[in-house]
Amino acid sequence: AIWWAGRGQDTGIPIAGEGAPLVSEFAVLEFASALGMSAESGRMLMAQALELAHRLPRVWARVQAGSLAPWRARRIAEQTLILSLEAVAFVDAQVAPFAHKTGPAQTQRLVETAIARHMPAHAAEQRERAAEQRHFTIDHDQVSFAGTSRVHGELDLADALDLEDAVRLGAE
Question: What is the C-alpha separation between 17 and 24, in angstroms, rounded?
Answer without folding.
Answer: 15
